[in-house]
Design a protein that fits this description.
With about 190 residues, this protein is mostly beta strands. It is built from two helices and 13 strands; from the N terminus they run ββββαβββββββββα. The protein has a six-stranded antiparallel β-sheet with strand order 1-2-10-7-12-5, with no helix packed on it.
Length: about 190
């Protein structure tokens, strides 16, 4: 099988950046956005349960940080289809050597990169351009009772957002700060 991406490691175990390799000619190109067989060695072992598409109107908008808790913990494959985002993943896995550490990558329609985020990581992004479109492949369907929303400005995590925050949803603004007794997400 021909792999349609190069794998770029991140400093957080299990978190991968995929550099897609489009096939093109004078007519344009084709790029594979998801292939279960190619992602199996990196932990994607379930079918895609849900695909979501978001549109973010305004540069500076922050969405997140979101994750689902067991038994609905999920992997996500995040792709920017239009515009540019600063995409953040935060390790919230119990007993992880990188617990509460975050890593961000620039995702854009132009750089053709996707973020493979394992279960136990919170995810969010900041739009770096107006009119951003994102696609999310999820290994589990959304389960509202298993959702955890972590405050994007939690001092225990310490994310430094690159732009002044222009907008957030009421739900994200009301997200909790992690307590000092938060020991992570057991998987």
């Amino acid at each position: 099988m021909i792999q349609r991406f190069d794998l770029l490691l991140s400093p957080l175990p299990g978190l991968y950046l995929l550099q897609r390799k489009p096939l093109g000619d004078a007519r344009g190109y084709l790029q594979r956005l998801f292939c279960a067989d190619e992602l199996l060695p990196f932990g994607w072992s379930q079918p895609v349960a849900q695909i979501n598409h978001t549109f973010t109107l305004r540069k500076g908008t922050v969405r997140g940080l979101h994750l689902q808790l067991p038994p609905h913990a999920e992997m996500k494959l995040i792709t920017c289809l239009r515009g540019e985002v600063w995409d953040v993943a935060v390790d919230l896995r119990t007993h992880s050597p990188t617990f509460l550490q975050w890593h961000a990558e620039l995702l854009s329609a132009d750089n053709k990169r996707s973020y493979l985020i394992p279960a136990g990581f919170a995810h969010g992004f900041q739009a770096l351009t107006d009119e951003v479109e994102m696609m999310y492949c999820h290994s589990q369907a959304y389960a509202p009772d298993s959702e955890l929303n972590v405050n994007a400005f939690d001092p225990q995590i310490g994310i430094t957002w690159p732009l002044t925050v222009a907008d957030m949803s009421d739900k994200d603004l009301a997200s909790v700060l992690l307590s000092k007794n938060f020991f992570g997400v057991g998987l």
